[in-house]
Design a protein that fits this description.
- With 289 residues, the chain is α+β, with helices and mostly antiparallel strands.
- The protein contains 10 helices and 12 strands.
- Helix content is 34%, strand content 20%.
- It has a 5-stranded antiparallel beta sheet with strand order 8-9-12-11-10.
- Strand 6 and strand 7 form a beta hairpin.
Length: 289
């Protein structure tokens, strides 16, 4: 008598995978549903599901949604004296810095902090130090570039940072490989990260912002001069999730307290990134529910 595998989770998973690849083409939503079913059966864990969903969503995201806007960039002028820019580099603790020319939209290249170590060992070198002798070639990309394509270029070209330009060729911001990977695996924090508005809230233009869902509601209210209710939830992501009553999909939105919150990235258990648009005709007021 044949062995019955109907209650075998491993066999069920194999059957589903086989059916998926042998049948007619399915949608991305079908794949996501199947992955969530595997999570519910404890065949994959929540973290694995989050990475899979993050990788799928990256294919739909553009650089403009996650870049560090120009107003928040820390850059160096090519004509600057090391005595002027070294304190800034030491304070912010970044590893790469855009180097700009006299024209603020002229990208000279990228300076690596490690290339400045000789100055610390021998301060006399400052007199003959020239940034242009140390800059690396800049990787320049458009705002509309998809994140999956950017990640592939980062890997092939061994770049870790790209300068983002707008449709007119002006500098719009910058993006790093860490920014892209965070959309797949979630927040990557180290000892140099600073939890402030400039880090958690990025202005896309005067009417749109990208906001990390983990920002405390109190900090959001302070930044936008709003009065969202923080009695039940600590973060904006938690408050938005409550409004949906479920885990929302990418591009779903909800209007709350004078803002439209659009989901840009979420994983198997939480919202990661939101687009926030102030509603022009709506008062900024507290949520009563």
């Amino acid at each position: 008598m044949p062995e019955d595998h109907s209650d075998n989770p491993g066999r069920s998973w194999l059957d589903r995978i086989t059916q998926f690849f042998s049948g007619e083409p399915r949608t991305r939503e079908d794949l996501t549903e199947m992955m969530r079913d595997l999570r519910d059966r404890d065949i994959i864990d929540v973290d694995t599901l989050g990475i899979i969903e993050g990788a799928l969503q990256v294919a739909d995201m553009q650089v403009r949604e996650i870049m560090i806007p120009r107003t928040q960039m820390i850059s160096i002028r090519a004509t600057a004296d090391p005595r002027d820019f070294l304190p800034v580099i030491i304070e912010c603790a970044h590893s790469r810095f855009p180097v700009l020319g006299d024209d603020p939209d002229e990208v000279i290249g990228v300076l690596l902090a490690k290339d400045l170590l000789p100055l610390a060992l021998d301060p006399t070198r400052m007199e003959r130090f020239s940034i242009k002798d140390h800059v690396r070639q800049a990787f320049i990309i458009p705002e509309s570039k998809r994140l999956d394509s950017l990640l592939r270029d980062f890997r092939i070209n061994r770049n870790h940072m790209a300068i983002v330009v707008n449709e007119y060729g002006g500098i719009a911001g910058l993006v790093t490989i860490e920014d892209v990977l965070e959309q797949i695996v979630g927040e990557i924090e180290d000892e140099t990260d600073v939890e402030d508005d400039d880090y958690l809230i990025k202005g896309i233009n005067k009417d749109e912002y990208t906001v990390k869902a983990l920002i405390p509601i109190e900090d959001f209210n302070e930044h936008f001069d709003s009065e969202l209710n923080d009695e039940e939830f600590d973060t904006i992501g938690g408050l938005v999730m409550q409004q949906f009553g479920r885990l929302p999909e990418r591009n779903e939105f909800v209007e709350l307290g004078g803002f439209r919150f659009t989901v840009l990235n979420s994983d198997g258990r939480t919202i990661r990134l939101l687009r926030v648009t102030p509603l022009q005709d709506a008062p900024v007021m507290a949520d009563d529910g």
